[in-house]
Structures are given as C-alpha cells and as structure tokens.
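To: structure desk
From: M.T.
Subject: fold request, one chain
Message: Could you run this one when you get a chance? Sequence is below, nothing fancy, just the single chain.
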Amino acid sequence: MATGVTKLSEYDEKPDSKSPEGWHRFWTKEKESADKRLRKWTKQGNQIVRRYLDERTGGSDGGGQPNRLNLFHTNISTLQSMLYGSTPKIEVSREHQDPDDDVARVASLLFQRMLEADVASSGDDLATALKACLQDRLLPGMGTARVRYDYDTEMQQVMDPETLEITEAEMLTGEYAPTDYVHWQDFLWGWGRTWTEVPWVGFRSWMTKSECKERFGEKISSNLEYVNQTPTGNDNKEETYDTDQKNNVQKAEIWEFWSKDDKKVYWYSPGASLILDVQDDPLLLDGFWPCPMPMMANLTSTLFVPRADFVIAQDLYNEIDELQTRIYTITRAVKVVGVYDKNAGDSAGRMLKEGIENDLIPVDNWAMFAEKGGLQGVIQWLPVQEIVGTLQTLIQIRDQTIELLYQVTGMSDILRGANTDQYTSDGTNQLKAKFGSIRVQSLQDDFARFASDLDGLKAEVISKHFDPESIMVQSSAQFMPIADQDKVEPAVQLMKSPQIKWRVNIRPESIAMVDYAQLKAERTEYLMSMAQFIQSSSGAVQAVPGSLPILLEMMKWGMAGFKGASYLEGTFDQAIEMAQNAPPPGQNDQNQKAQEDQAKMQAEMQKIQAKSQADMQLIQAKLQGEMQKQQMDHQQKMELQMQKSQGDQQKIMADLQADLKVIAAKLGADLQVEEAQTTFAAAEEELQHENKMTEIGADHAVALTEKRADGEMAAALQRRDREE
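Reply: Done. Structure tokens follow.
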C-alpha cells in the first residue's frame, strides 16, 4: 500500500470490532501518519505566517537593520480586501425551481431569513469565520470551518394528558446551528489523492479539566494529559513560536475524528489509553462531513495536500529582499568623504570642518603646496559617481524583479491600484487587467463555493434537526405578508421533508470588493449596445413575425457575460415566455374584426359621453354666472349702505367738534378775566406796601398801575365781546 496508509493487518481485530484500547491504537497510528504526511506543509505554514507578520530575526544581512521590502504582506492584504469586501448575500432555492410552487417559495424565504441572521459581524458568526478561513487560504494554503447542532434545555412543569398530573420534564428551549472556524493546524485528514478519496477528517479542540469532566465524566477526565496550549499546538520541535506565547491554563488535546467508512465519530486524546467516546452519525448529513471541502492552494491529483502560494514565488520575494538590503547598504555609503596627504598640512581637513562661505584658509609654505599640485595633489575623494551608478542599477533590477513577481503571483499593477505608464494605450491596460485577474477570479469563485457549501450544511442541519416551532420563531414567520400566512405551516413541513433538496448560493460578486467605476462603465456600455440592438431589430420583428423570442434570447445571452446578470435573468425568462405564447399577427382575423367593432362602439360611446359632459359643463357655467351676478348686486347694495352710514357719522363728528371749540373758547376767556383780577389784586397789595415812597413817585406809580389795569380789563372785555 502507499505511504501513510494504515494497514488493517497490523491490528489483531477488524475496525468494526475493536475494543476502546484497540480503537485508540488505530487512531494513534492514523494521526501519526497524517502528521508525518503534513509535517513539511505545517512547518512551511508557520514560517509563512511569520514572514507575513515580518517576524524574521534581523535583516537579510543578519544585522537587524530595517532593510527589507515586505511585498508579501501588501499582496496578501490587497487580495484579502478584494476577495471579501462586503457582507455575503445569501440566496436559497429548491434544486428544481418551479415558478408556480408558492409553498417552496415561502420555505426558501424562511431558510434565507434564518441564514441571514448569522451573517452580521458580531465576532462569532459566518462573516468572522469566512474572514479567518480566507486568511488561512492565502497564507499557509488551507482554510476550513464546520457546522454544529446545539440546543438548550431546562426542567419545566408539564401536565400528563392521560393522568392530568403535573410533573417535571426536560423541555427544549432553544436550537442553534453555529458555524465554527477551524484553525488550519487543528484539522487533519486521511490519505487520499482527491477529496472524495479521503476516508476521515479530524478536528482538534482544547478542553479544560472541568469541560472534560462535563463531557466525558470523572473517570475519563482524571486520566487525561493536560498541557500548556501553544499557537501551533503542543509541539515546539520546529521552534516556530516564542515560548512566552503559551497558554497559562493547561488543557487536554481532544481530537474528533469523523470516519466516513463506518459513519461514526470518535473522540480521541493522545494522553489517554483508550478511546474517549464513539457515536453514530450525529448530524445525518447527506455528505456525512460536518465541513465542506476546504479551500486548498495548488492541489494536484497526486496527493490531497496543499502547497502555499508563497512557496511558488518565495525565490522572487527573497531576491527582492536581498536587492533591498544592498540598496540600503550602498545608500548609506553615498557621502562626501576622501583622503589627503598628511605631510601637506592640516589645510585640507580644515576646509571641510571650518570653512564657511566667502572664507579663505591660510596655507603655510605656499610654494611647496603649489609645487605638489595644490589641492588636487593632496586630496583624493571617494568615487561617489561609481557608487551612485551601482545604486541605480540595483534599483532598476529590483523594480524588474517586482514586475516579474507580479506576473508570477497574478498581482498586476493595475489590480493593485498603481499608476501605469502614461504612454500605454487603454487597450493594453485593459488586456493586462483582464489576464491579471484570471487567477484572482478563480480564487474568488472558490471562496464563494466554500461559503455557499458551508451555509448549505447549516441549512441541512436546520432542516433535519430543528423543531417546527424553532423554525417559525427564528425565521420571524409571523411577520410574513398576509397573503403568505396560510403557506407558512406547509412551508415548514416542506423544509423538514428529507426528500427535498435545497440549494444555498452565495455569488462571488456579492462578497467581493466592488469596482464601482468599472461596474458603471460596463453597465453603461451594455445599455447603449442594447438600445442600438433594439432599434436595429425592430424592423426584423415586423418583417419576420415570431422572431421576438429569438431576439430576446440574444439579449439575455449578451447580458449573461456580466457579473450580477442573474438578477435580471428571471425577468428575461418571463418576457421570453410571454413572447412565445403570444399569437402571431394575422392568425385570428375574426377576433381582430370583433376587436375593431368593439373599438368603434367604444369610440361612439366615448363621443356621446363627451357631448353629455360638454352640455353639463355649459349648464354649470350658466348657473355659476347667475350666482356670480346676484352676488355682485348684493355686494353693491351693501357698499352703498356703508357709504351712507359713513357720511352721517362724519356730519355728527363735525358738529361735535364745532361745539367743543365754542366751549373751549368760553373757558379760555373766563380764565383770562380771572387772571386779570388776580393781577390787579396783587398790584394793590404791592402798592400798600410801598408807603415809604415819595408821593410823586407813589401817585405816578398808582396812576400807571390803574391805567394798566383799566387797559387790561377793557381789552379782556373786548375780547369776550368779540368771541360772544
């Protein structure tokens, strides 16, 4: 037999009749064989991860200088962002899509709702597992994940329908189908040249003593070996990790082997002396494996073992590092330095150390200095021009090596977003982008295949293990449209039917990073071409009846070459079916004549209806005119009455204002008389107090005062008479 295959003759008993000790010896041999077969790939994988993180010791020259150019990290990061740039869009359908099967349509929607609930990024979901698997595929060359079935129960009080007694029973409270990421070093498989020949797969997990006790019991857990887990497992023979990175908590190494030959699952631990547990097929999946075919790099039909992409191009990566190291070293050597004749004095050294602009340095024994050729005779500079020439040559070789690396890895400068030569034609650039993306497209399709198969296994677990109540709750079936509510229960029963095959699809364009500029250009070009096609084919449709379905098929064929065209293929199918079922022109003349007569009758009816509507509109217009005239007359009468009442009010106001003026004048005259009398009394009082004045002056003052008073009184009386 081939190397790595365990011969059954090495055991005393056949596998189906082995004791727990015999099964432990069997799986020990199988695991050791798988470890030997994958040892080289595992060692390279750890080195590649360290290379990606640039954890190499020192520089390429061993000096520890930052003199490397880690293009590997850049290329992997670009590929990872390109392949997984958006949240996956899940599509669920039956294997045979029947357009009139509404129950299957509702069942597909329920499946899709449950699967999409696990897509959002939360740390423990499909998106996180897919990102980790993609990174494992791009670095060591293999990425995988698995699905499980889990449930929660609790003790509840229930009533026995026969005895009507209340008892406690364990009731189901929740069901789950989680997606678990599997580290590339925690996955083993049996010998096979292809995936279909692989007899078994194994998943490693690390469990604490309390977890082992809960899972396997006190007796088995006490006999297990507990060690410190390391990033690469518990074996550090290759020294691929730092010893300080081990886990402080000691755990037991537990392997879960799924054997396809006997449809059983075996739990195995290297530190035990017997097999821990054996169970029949727990998930009852059609393909038995709880995982899809892993994403593998550079597989051949010779042996099912991956080979990392980095290994294919590692010589170019190392050469670029070596060139970068030399460029770094020579760049440090490019400086102004030279030698001079010590016997010529210290003038040459002082020129570089002390000399400044417009400064002269004195020279002793000038005649002897000049006789030796002056400054040129005593100084010889380092040949910088030759060093710079070597540096430019190295830079040119490095750039050429980088271009060669892009050709080997498929990472063209256009895909990486670098600037292209301005003199390169657009056709050349498009051709480079087309062929440079072939390898990326293949990797993108494989990633979409893996994601679809992984979610398909989860849908199969839901179909075969979930209760109908859990399906309805987790799919929010109560919020389905009212028209589909009567189809929910039949749809759930259809989901649980083992004869129905469901197809889960995640399209590559739904998870890849979208180039919106390219997408816009492609769709614009297609729409313009389709518009020209429709315009030019309209004559053919009229000349050749029945050619419309063929033209629509041609449009669908042209559209199928674009990503995302599947969203419109269903609409095109409906249009093609309608065109095929439509009768050709001229086939039903009687029906056409009846349609023409009916059209004439409808036209006459429309004329009569239009005339009656016109008459009604004329009558309505007359009525509206009469109503408007009556309204205007009423408004004029109201305005006249308002004007008359306003005139009467103005006359009354004028009379009131005149009376007020007369009263005000009388009051003013009385006030002036009183003021005059007051003034006269004051004058008399003042005259009495002036007895000491001379008689002439007193008489004259009295006469003047009396005369003034008489004049003022007379004037006041005259004014009053005039006003009255």
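Reply (cont.): The mean pLDDT is 77. Let me know if you need anything else for the meeting.
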